[in-house]
């Protein structure tokens, strides 16, 4: 008969288990509160995809502007300078030879 728990010990064990179950339920509730709803996730994902595509478009436009600027620089500055200095260099080379 000494192996059997007393009614008080049974109540204490039951209260401990009940407290454990309550803690588990509270933890589950907190985890569910932190979980993002699928619709919200989808909306955020769509918004992020839109931002990324916008940034990619802007990057392509900036790249095109950079190429256009380089072409302008070559056409407006480098070619005329070569046109001016090349004949001078040729004349100086002929004059000394």
UniProtKB/TrEMBL annotation:
Keywords: Coiled coil, Membrane, Transmembrane, Transmembrane helix. Residues 11-38 form a coiled coil. The chain crosses the membrane at residues 72-93. This is DUF3618 domain-containing protein. It comes from Streptomyces tibetensis.
């Amino acid at each position: 008969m000494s192996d059997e728990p007393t009614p008080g010990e049974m109540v204490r064990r039951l209260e401990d288990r009940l407290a454990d179950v309550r803690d588990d339920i509270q933890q589950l509730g907190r985890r569910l509160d932190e979980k993002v709803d699928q619709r919200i996730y989808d909306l955020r994902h769509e918004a992020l995809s839109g931002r990324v595509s916008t940034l990619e478009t802007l990057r392509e436009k900036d790249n095109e502007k950079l190429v256009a600027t380089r072409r302008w620089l070559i056409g407006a500055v480098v070619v005329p300078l070569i046109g001016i200095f090349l004949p001078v260099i040729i004349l100086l080379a002929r004059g000394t030879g």
